[in-house]
From TrEMBL:
Entry's Gene Ontology BP terms: endoplasmic reticulum to Golgi vesicle-mediated transport; retrograde transport, endosome to Golgi
Family under the similarity heading: Belongs to the GOT1 family.
Compartments reported by the entry: Golgi apparatus membrane
GO CC term, one of those recorded: Golgi membrane
Membrane topology label: Multi-pass membrane protein
Keyword Transmembrane assigned: yes
Recorded name of the encoding gene: LOC100500127
Domain of life: Eukaryota
Bilayer-crossing regions: 12-32, 38-57, 69-87
Keywords: Golgi apparatus, Membrane, Transmembrane, Transmembrane helix
PANTHER family the UniProt entry points to: CGI-141-RELATED/LIPASE CONTAINING PROTEIN, GOLGI TRANSPORT PROTEIN 1-RELATED
Name this protein carries in UniProt: Uncharacterized protein
Main location: Golgi
């Protein structure tokens, strides 16, 4: 059994990871502040690399099963730096979930041991959702998951469309035409653009 010994490098890494999460949270609170979000991402990645080591970090991010998450996280960070913090954080969040999805069962066990939160995470509904996350789901929740994702996708695209059209509305019918195309694509119809 490998022991987890806390040396100074790992303590600094945990501190940097904590500050990264804190600055990312502040960036979200202050309406997607680009500087705070970028600083949070840099601190988080550097903290993880100091905590588990540079070689282990490279192996984790370059693992074949983690390519999708690594690329999404990197593209989201690049979009954030370019000046689109909301879109960057959406892409980064997807990458973060894909990258760290293997740690969710460990996190669930840890959260169940916390005195107040443990009671909440031991409720039947939360346990059924966490068992579905471990791929041993006795219920088929795909009928709940797919419409939820489609609704989020529609809201994000509609808000981006409204902002784009309100900025560059040259013709009065442009917004209605783009909204009709968006609705047809959401409903599954292929519309030539």
């Amino acid at each position: 059994m490998v022991s987890f010994e806390m040396n100074d490098r790992k303590k600094i890494g945990l501190g940097l990871t904590g500050f990264g999460i804190f600055f990312s949270f502040l960036g979200l609170i202050f309406f997607f502040d680009k500087g705070l979000l970028a600083m949070g991402n840099i601190l988080f990645v550097s903290g993880v690399s100091l905590t588990i080591g540079l070689k282990s970090t490279m192996q984790f991010f370059m693992k074949r099963s983690n390519f999708k998450g690594t690329i999404s996280f990197g593209i989201g960070f690049f979009i954030l730096i370019l000046g689109w913090p909301i879109l960057g954080m959406i892409v980064e969040s997807y990458g973060f979930i894909v990258l760290f999805s293997g740690f969710w069962p460990t996190l669930a066990v840890f959260l169940q041991k916390i005195p107040v939160l443990g009671w909440l995470f031991q409720q039947p509904f939360v346990r059924s959702v966490s068992s579905c996350a471990e791929m041993s789901c006795p219920y088929n929740l795909k009928h709940l998951y797919t419409p939820f994702i489609k609704a989020i996708y529609f809201v994000i695209l509609h808000s981006c469309l409204c902002v784009t059209v309100s900025i560059e509305d040259v013709h009065g019918g442009l917004k209605q035409m783009l909204l009709a195309v968006l609705l047809d694509r959401y409903r599954g119809r292929r519309v030539p653009v």
